[in-house]
Amino acid sequence: MLAIGLGVLAGILFGLLTVMVRRGLIRRSDPIAGSVVVIGVAMVIVLAVTLITGQGGELFDPGIAAVYFAIGLVAPGASQIIFMYAVRDVGASRAAIMIGTAPLLATIIAVVFRDEPLKAGLLAGTVLIVIGGASLAYERNLPAGFRTRGMVLAFLCALTFACRDNAMRMAGLETDMDPRAATSWALIGAFVAVAGFAAITRRGALPGQLRDVFIPFLPAGIVFGVAYTTLTIALGAGKVTVFAPLNAMQSMWTVLLAWVILGRSDGIGTRVVAAMLLVVAGGILIGVFR
């Protein structure tokens, strides 16, 4: 029951994260500086939890730490900036639905490159996700400022998550580092990636920009940190086969929370809801049968 509860909570929190990012972007449209705040706050929270729960010693294994640090550079490092631009360009709901294709992409990578078996449930989930994602191409109830490139960015973000999931799975099979310590190193890598990119592209203007965006993006950073903490605890409390289908529902939570918090500004219509249901159903099937 604990794993189920944590899985549901993680899905809700990751859904809320996308909405909080959108809300922050409405107040301050700066995806790069915003990424630094979101990742930085999340990193501090996860590091604090790791130390408080007595897993600090797990942090000091340089060989294993380097693996998770490298993974974090890509996702959630580079992917966070892509994610922020995607949410800015197409809104929280559509970005979340496209990112919901990550289980499909992760399965394709695992089947093609890691020789995992292809099952009927995976094929059924694939069909549902493809139909759901494709249906958004014909959607007309678009939010203000919609840019088609945002859908491409959201798909690219899903691809980085899929690569991250396979890399983390491979690393997890070969190491016994505590999930909290592993997540801490992944977020440290992510922070180095986004802060380094921001420092190079913004140069001396970055400190002032961080002050401007800190409050608007602070809620997103807190939600991200708590969501990742919940995720790591869930993985330690139960099997991935229990957790994955519940976590796959985060697109649904994003659409529901966007409707409550953002209202009409996110342009949620019948087609968006239908696409969300198809993608979520496909993600659940893949989570069950993978």
Largest beta-sheet details: none
| Beginning-to-end CA distance, first to last residue | 21 Å
Number of helices: 12
Mean pLDDT: 86
Structural class: mainly alpha
Write structural notes for this entry.
The chain is 81% helix and 0% strand. The chain has 290 residues and is mainly α. The chain is globular, with a radius of gyration of 18 Å.
Short description:
By secondary structure, the chain is mainly alpha-helical.
What tags apply to this protein structure?
single chain; 290 residues; mainly alpha; 12 helices; 81% helix; 0% strand; globular
Q: Topology, please?
A:
Layout lengths: L1 H26 L3 H22 L9 H29 L1 H8 L2 H12 L6 H16 L13 H26 L4 H24 L3 H32 L2 H8 L2 H12 L8 H20 L1
Helix pairs in contact: 1-4, 1-9, 1-10, 1-11, 2-3, 2-8, 2-9, 3-4, 3-7, 3-8, 4-7, 4-11, 4-12, 5-7, 5-12, 6-12, 8-9, 10-12, 11-12
